[in-house]
Design a protein that fits this description.
With 688 residues, this protein is an alpha+beta fold. Among the domains are: 120 residues, no CATH class; 208 residues, Rossmann fold (3-Layer(aba) Sandwich). Helices cover 21% and strands 31% of the residues. It is built from 13 helices and 36 strands. The strands form eight sheets. The chain has a nine-stranded mixed sheet, with helices on both faces. A hairpin with a 6-residue loop joins strand 22 and strand 23. Helix 1 packs parallel to helix 4. The radius of gyration is 26 Å and the shape is globular. The termini are far apart.
């Protein structure tokens, strides 16, 4: 069904004139970014050869730097989605700041409706309830839930709360009754416990109840009365402490996660009760739900030392089904795409050395090729598709192009710009990002991404900033990166290395190797030494900067590689893992941020030598170069306390250092601009 329907789509696209040229991508949909970094004499390798002149953007003749704030502003649009009829599109929209509201666009008239948002409330999530209603969550700027709202498209000014003054998040929109969604609410059971409830989205009680001061008691009583009227039914609670819920393949309630005696357990909803799943999650993770009842798509390690695969799994029996995808070089680290009409899994998006699309359906594969032909030299993602396949939403991006969204109306033969995430940034003044392969000291080949400033060549090598990512189980990816582009616009080359622990590499390393913090540092060092060999980098002007775990790697680099770095910046890092372990106490392995790492590192009592070796903050006397320490001075978090201890240690050791205190939320533009102004001033002082 999906194949036939989308072969028809391709014929429509061909008639529309979209298939203009041979595709940027191969027939197997592997999206390889354009690479411009010139490898010198085989010393360093990149994904493709290019000339040195390619490092200079086309419009370098324009004068004056792009304002710093333009790189730091929040994306203008987030998460656009079509309604199923393809008549309207909704998205989170901002003015470049951190506070979003909901915008709904009529794709026929191109008129916009704005919902929610403002100084005291922002929208952080939305769901379509059929074609004519939309639900959205209002939250306070501090993140407190204010209400789950509903608006009818024919009366948007009279949006109303169906649950207020408490958390309420939609779990599933039932396809046959979309105005009766299932929502997790903070108070759902008669005993006042959280629960999944079926809620009447047509129940308009009016606006918010006044619960201030003298009205608190009577107001809360009215809130409870309204909730009781709106809640149509309550789903029984699964055994254990509630962690989360998933819909099934049709959009109805399907699965629940709970915590039982410290172990995450999955439960399957059969329509009347919860059935406990035998699946464990020590080595496998859920990617999405499958195509049949009680079916999941899971990422499962290969038993033969090859990259992990994604395959169907029966959650009731644990039986393994068909394998969907196994890359030859990378563990799967992305998402799947579902045909909106049939609900079949037809494709997947993930990262290799660059962003990659794989389609399991020939019709969608041809559709991707057609889209690539219309946007040559860009990465094109199919974001959404109406049920009848006549309206498409696509995302288009590259290393120098922040994401832009386009709608394609096949019946009207019209393509329209929906909105760019950062339309204020001129792509022709940004710098290309290249893929650099480097080899670790134990023989593994990993990826790094290199962004060169305009005018860089072997006669004019650039100062370098090393940006190891946080996590550690995360990944730097090829594509537009605001921090890398900001630094490049100010004359710095940037390298973003992926080290062991980065997603996509698990299959290469043993469990102990994936938690080897010393070797993670070594990997970063090898990436830097590799890029130096190209001759494009001034080896005497190299700085390192990172946040979180990247901040730890930055300090470790300064401690262990004093001959390599001239300065470093650490943003809210951890510097002494033994000290952190003691602070978190016996429950450290359950900590939401550091728990998994401590599970892998082992007990600090019996592994004292290991903890000493990885705690670079204990050896600050080996640092020869200036350090900028960024901290939230008003906080009581482990990171804030680590920063205070680290600053004391730097002072005692006589290491030159500076401190930048974060004033306000890092989500605020003013806070981010102040931080990067300080960082740029620090780098300019020590690297230029």
């Amino acid at each position: 069904m999906a194949l036939f329907r989308h072969l028809t789509l391709c014929r429509l696209l061909l008639g529309f004139g979209v298939l203009l040229s041979s595709s940027l991508l191969s027939a197997q949909d592997e999206e390889t970014p354009t690479v411009s970094f010139p490898p010198p004499g085989g010393e360093a390798t990149s994904a493709a050869p290019a000339s040195a002149e390619a490092a200079t953007p086309e419009a370098a003749v324009e004068t004056g730097p792009i304002p710093l704030a333009d790189f730091m502003r929040a994306p203008l649009i987030r998460g656009p989605l079509l309604n199923r009829a393809g008549t309207h599109l909704a998205a989170l929209y901002s003015a470049g700041g951190p506070r979003y509201q909901l915008v709904v666009r009529d794709l026929r008239t191109e008129e916009d409706i704005y919902l929610g948002g403002g100084e005291i409330a922002v929208v952080d999530e939305f769901r379509w309830l059929g074609n004519d209603h939309i639900a959205f969550n209002l939250v306070a700027p501090n993140g407190a839930d204010l209400g789950l709202m509903v608006a009818a498209l024919d009366d948007p000014e009279n949006a109303y709360p169906i649950y207020q003054y408490g958390a309420a998040r939609i779990v599933a929109v039932q396809p046959d009754k979309p105005l009766r969604p299932l929502a997790w609410v903070a108070v759902g059971t008669p005993e006042g416990e959280p629960a999944v409830v079926e809620i009447d989205a047509t129940k308009n009680h009016g606006g918010f109840v006044d619960i201030r001061e003298d009205n608190a008691e009577t107001g809360m009583a009215e809130v409870v009365r309204r909730h009781n009227e709106s809640i149509l039914s309550v789903v029984p609670l699964p055994e254990g402490e509630q962690l989360g819920y998933l819909p099934d393949h049709e959009g109805r309630l399907g699965f629940a996660y709970t915590l039982i005696e410290g172990t995450v357990v999955m439960h399957v909803w059969n329509g009347t009760e919860w059935l406990r799943s035998p699946l464990g999650f020590d080595n496998a993770t859920v990617v999405d739900v499958g195509e049949e009842p009680a079916q999941l798509i899971m990422l499962i390690p290969s038993a033969s030392g090859e990259p992990s695969m994604i395959r169907f799994v029966n959650a009731l029996t644990g039986e393994l089904g068909e394998m969907l995808l196994q890359d030859k070089e990378y563990d799967f680290n992305g998402s799947v795409f579902r045909d909106p009409a049939s609900r079949a899994i037809v494709g997947a998006f993930y990262d290799r050395n660059g962003p990659t699309s794989t389609w399991f359906d020939e019709g969608y594969r041809e559709l991707q090729t057609s889209l690539n032909g219309y946007f040559p030299g860009r990465v094109v993602r199919l974001v959404d598709l109406s049920d009848e396949g006549k309206m498409m939403l696509v995302a288009v991006t590259s290393d120098r192009d922040p994401v832009s969204y386009f709608s394609i109306d096949l019946e009207a033969a019209r393509i329209s710009v929906v909105q760019g995430e950062r339309p204020w940034l001129p792509s022709n003044r940004l710098s290309p990002t290249s893929i650099l392969k480097f080899t670790t000291t134990d023989g593994h080949q990993l990826d790094a991404y290199v962004t060169l400033p305009a005018g860089t060549d072997r006669e004019n090598p650039a100062p370098l900033i090393v940006l190891p990512h946080g996590g550690p189980w995360a990944r730097s990816t090829w594509g537009f990166d605001s921090e890398a582009q900001l630094l490049a616009s100010r004359g710095y080359a940037v390298i973003q290395p992926n080290y062991r622990g980065s997603t996509g590499y698990n299959w290469m390393f043993s469990r102990s190797e994936r938690s080897d913090l010393t070797m993670m540092h070594s990997d970063v060092t090898e990436a830097v030494r590799t890029v130096i060999k190209t001759g494009m980098i001034d080896p005497d002007r190299i700085g390192i900067s990172g946040g979180g775990f990247g901040g730890y790697l930055a300090v470790t680099g300064l401690v262990e590689e004093s001959d390599l770095y001239a300065c470093g910046v650490s943003v809210t890092g951890i510097y002494d893992w033994q000290r952190l372990a003691n602070e978190l106490g016996d429950n450290r392995e359950a900590h939401p941020t550091y728990g998994i790492l401590f599970q892998l590192l082992g007990d600090p009592g019996s592994e004292a030598a290991k903890y000493d070796a990885i705690s670079s903050g204990r050896r600050v006397d080996q640092i020869d170069d200036p350090v900028l320490v960024v901290r939230d001075a008003s906080g009581t978090s482990p990171e804030s306390q680590e920063a205070a201890e680290f600053i004391d240690d730097l002072l005692s050791a006589g290491v030159p250092y500076e401190v930048h205190n974060l004033e306000g939320s890092i989500l605020d533009l003013e806070t981010r601009v102040a931080l990067f102004e300080r960082m740029l001033g620090f780098f300019d002082q020590h690297l230029k």
